[in-house]
Write a structure and sequence with these properties.
Rossmann fold, alpha/beta, about 325 residues, globular, four-stranded parallel beta sheet, 8 strands
């Protein structure tokens, strides 16, 4: 990019608690969003139910965050991603991060952009695969704040990039690194398990393209990686609703029952480390795999601020914004 006037590069992400004390209010913000979770009894009772759920869930979730250092690293990684992409785009591009359920929130970020005199932006969702529950909610949150706080801002939205070559190449490289963790005599017997965040099945039934997007990514990545057995499962399922199937825990058990001994778990819907990779995969699923009889378990590294990923995302922004 090259222009006289500055452009804001705004990365959208979910956010996470920045302390153990922030866990309960973070969960309340999460459960209050009807675009993400439609609690029973309708919109009027969403917030009372959210308050109750966050109260009862907080104790367990606090302990999960305690295991990974007492806070979510998601903001730090997203800030590094924003800075790295902006650096590749030129001096006129200013990086910003906007989180959906914790600081920095939409109105504060838009006020900062307005105060800086920036009147145009590229808005990049950090969810590669589109679902109304995450991308849709974050984009709507941004639009509401922009209309209220900075109505003269013009912006280009990038809402999904599940088949973008730079992303696929970077993810394939992380899988190759993961495979390199296995002894060379075991490598051709490794079972690759892509694990994506689950959605309630009703989102898919209503036409949400999330499952299709994840499947396209996995297929395209494995075309790059080579001839390995692989499958997809869905993690982080909780609550009394029908979720996407199969669950990651269920699939780990099935693969063990089929006689597999070496497992590479690939977080596919996450582009940086956070609670689902550092605690759910690295602790819970690792322990489950050992209990099921896997002799070798590794996780592919997250994309985080790897140079190939940032190169790919900068190329995406250039392509989609027409700069």
């Amino acid at each position: 990019m090259s222009a006289a006037k500055p452009t804001a590069l705004i990365l959208l992400n979910m956010g996470g608690p920045d302390s153990l004390e922030a866990v309960k209010p973070f969960l309340y913000n999460l459960f209050s969003d009807r675009e993400l979770i439609q609690l029973p009894a309708g919109a009027l009772l969403q917030k009372p139910f959210a308050r109750m759920l966050s109260h009862f869930r907080a104790k367990k979730v606090v302990e999960n965050y305690r295991l990974i250092g007492g806070k979510s690293p998601l903001l730090e990684w997203t800030q590094k991603q924003a800075s790295g992409i902006a650096e590749r785009l030129g001096e006129d591009v200013r990086p910003f991060v906007l989180m959906r359920y914790w600081q920095p929130r939409a109105e504060a970020v838009l006020a900062e952009i307005k105060s800086a005199g920036i009147e145009r932006a590229v808005v990049l969702s950090m969810y590669p695969h589109y679902t109304g529950a995450t991308t849709g909610s974050s984009v709507n949150d941004f639009k509401r704040a922009a209309a209220k706080v900075h109505p003269v801002l013009t912006y280009q939205l990038i809402e999904n990039w599940y088949a973008w070559p730079g992303y696929l190449d970077a993810l394939a490289n992380r899988i190759r690194e993961g495979l390199g963790s296995f002894h060379e005599l075991l490598r051709d017997k490794v079972q690759i398990l892509f694990s994506a965040h689950a959605l309630p099945q009703k989102f898919i039934d209503r036409g949400d393209p999330y499952r299709q997007h994840v499947e396209v990514t996995a297929n395209e990545v494995m075309r790059r990686v080579g001839d390995y057995d692989w499958t997809i499962a869905w993690q982080s399922r909780s609550g009394p609703v029908q979720w996407m199937e199969p669950g990651t825990e269920e699939m780990i058990r099935q693969l063990a029952d089929a006689g597999h001994k070496s497992l590479l778990l690939v977080p596919i819907s996450f582009v940086s480390d956070h609670i689902e990779t550092l605690e759910e995969i690295d602790v819970q699923y690792r322990n489950l795999a050992a209990d099921c009889g896997f002799a070798h378990f590794h996780r592919a590294p997250s994309l985080n601020d790897r140079g190939d990923f940032l190169d790919g995302m900068a190329a995406l922004v250039k392509e989609k914004s027409g700069r």
